[in-house]
Every structure is written in C-alpha cells, then in structure tokens.
Amino acid sequence: MALGKASVRGMSARDTVTFYLPPHLRKQAERGKQNFISKVGDVLTAAGLTVAFDNDDDLARLRALTRPGRGLYLMDPPTNTRGLTFRKTYIYPFWHIEKEAERWAWPVAQDAFDPKSADARKAANFYRFWRNRLFEEAPNHARKDGFVYVPLQGQLLRKRSFQSCSPLEMVQTVLAHDTDRQVVVTLHPSETYSPQERAALDDLLSGEDRLMIKPGGVPHYLQNCDYIVTQNSGVGFEGYFFGKPLILFAKSDFHHIALNVDDIGPKQAFQRVKNHAPDYAAYLFWFLQIRAINAGRPEAKTKIRDVLRNHGWPV
C-alpha cells in the first residue's frame, strides 16, 4: 500500500486517509492520473493528512476495520463511521462524497427542487453545453416515434427493498397501462441474466406483439422514444438531456422531475406522462452544477473541502 509524503514525517496513523479502489483505478490514482481523486488528495494533504491507497476487495475491507484512520470508498458502503463513499454522479466530471452508498439516501434525494432557484441563463447555457458534450447533435434531433423505452438493470424476477415491484412486473405494468405504443426493452450490457430470467422474458415476448427486447446501449432509443420507464437506471437520467419524460419504479436520487409510481401509483403516472414537461435545464443545472462536485471547475477543491467539512472531517 502506497503512503503519501506526510507519512515520512511520522504522522499518526489516525491522520491517514485511505482510498479503497479497484486495482486498475488504484494504479491510476497512485500515479496521479485520476482527476477527482487527485483533487481530493490535494485537499487532504493541504490539511496535513496522509493519503494512502488500498484495493476494494473483502480483505481490504477487513484491513479497514483495524485501521485508526479514515477511509474513502468508491461506491461501496464505508466499513465504519470514519469512512465516506464517493461516486460519479452519472456523468464525468461530476461526483458526490456521502455517508451512505445508496443514492436515494443522499441529501440531494431528500431535498426539494425549485426550478426558480436556478439562474435561467446559466441553466440554459449549462444544458446546451452538456447536451452537445455528451451526445453531440443527437438531442437537437430528438423526436417521438411512438414507443416506450424501458432500460432494464439486473435481478429481473426479484423485488428489492427500494423497488415498487420486480423489473419483470414493471414491464408488464407498462404493457397494461400503455396499450397504444410499442415497448422497447433493453438488457443491461454489464448484467448476466439467468436462464430463468431469459425464459420469463421469452414468455412475455411470445404473448405480446408490441414488445421488443433489444441489447442496451443504443443511443437512438433515447433520441426517438416518447418517454422512458425504469426502476432507477442512469439511462433515465440521460433521457433528461433529450427532454424525455421519465417514470420511475424505484427510489432514486434524480426523482424530483420524474413521475414516481411509489408516490402517485401507475395509473396516474401513465396518464400524466403524455403531457409531462418539467424544466430539464433548470433541474440538470441544480442537480449537477449546484448539488454535485464538478471536478472540471477551478473551484472544485474548495467545494471538496466544504463537503468534507460538512461531514466533520478536519480539512
């Protein structure tokens, strides 16, 4: 495990902050090649703390339990109250540093969004810039081709604690409440689906002519769908850049301008989605630029320091 320069001066182990990272990212971070981690490290060392690195496997988490210092965990729950989790806020270079790993428990998820709180000119410029940066000209040519886009995640047959129903039941609900449109379901490219899950999808497909099941990661589904339905996939968040209404079937941090089945039920959600037109520019500016850490901005280190201080860290 590599230690920062401050360890040479004999600082206490209690003053060490360890990043727990997957091996490939750990190598980048140790070489100073990961922008956000480097900036967090600069804030920590400027406060007189030591920066160290370890892997993110089970053995590393056991080592973390015996270490007196603090820890920063990529997407994983901290092992104790001296740790925080950090993760990308859906797109680079936006990040969060939080106490919990579950996004829906973050303060931004609990807070109300007021469109009037965002400067309209700044929001419009931000929206225009990031639409072009992420998707080039595609959002400018978005249209509605008469289908619902349903990006699936994993565990299709199981209803987890943060979900309104299982993903398969979600697809069935879409078909039941929108009887006019085609329904394009995509499979997550990083998920491995069991034979039982595949069989359940095949059964559903055989009984419904309007249903299509496709591989995920196809940009034109975002561009051309009428609206998006998902548990809490980041694809739904990306749809905001295309001005696409969203129905959520699970808890999420980006729920504020979506239609939430937990809040209003499926009948109301599918009735309202046809005319749902929130202020996407104001929301994305608030959610990303105001509430997240933009590691590409000159003030990123100041914001990182403020966030760590709010978590009680001595920086």
Folded structure, characterized:
This protein has 315 residues and is of the alpha/beta class. It folds into two domains: 5-109 and 292-310, no CATH class; 115-288, Glycogen Phosphorylase B (Rossmann fold). Helix content is 37%, strand content 17%. The protein has twelve helices and twelve strands. It has helices at 23-30, 35-46, 58-66, 107-110, 120-135, 167-177, 195-206, 219-224, 234-239, 261-272, 280-290, 300-310; strands spanning 16-21, 50-55, 70-74, 83-88, 94-98, 147-151, 182-187, 211-215, 227-230, 246-248, 259-260, 293-294. The strands form two sheets. It has a six-stranded mixed sheet, with helices on both faces. Strands 8-7-6-9-10-11 form a six-stranded parallel sheet. Strand 9 (227-230), helix 9 and strand 10 (246-248) form a beta-alpha-beta unit. 37% of the residues are buried. The model is unreliable at 1-10 (pLDDT under 50).
* Helical coverage, percent range: 25-40%
Q: Shape, please?
A: globular
Instruction: Give Rg in angstroms.
Output: 22 Å
In order across it, which strands form the biggest sheet? 2-1-3-4-5-12
- By secondary-structure content and strand pairing, the structural class works out as alpha/beta
Order of helices and strands: EHHEHEEEHHEHEHEHEHEEHHEH
CATH topology of the largest domain: Rossmann fold
Q: Helix tally?
A: 12
Quick structural gist:
The protein is built from twelve helices and twelve strands. By secondary structure, it is α/β, with parallel strands linked by helices. β7, α7 and β8 form a beta-alpha-beta unit.
What are the defining features of this structure?
about 325 residues; 12 helices; disordered N terminus; alpha/beta
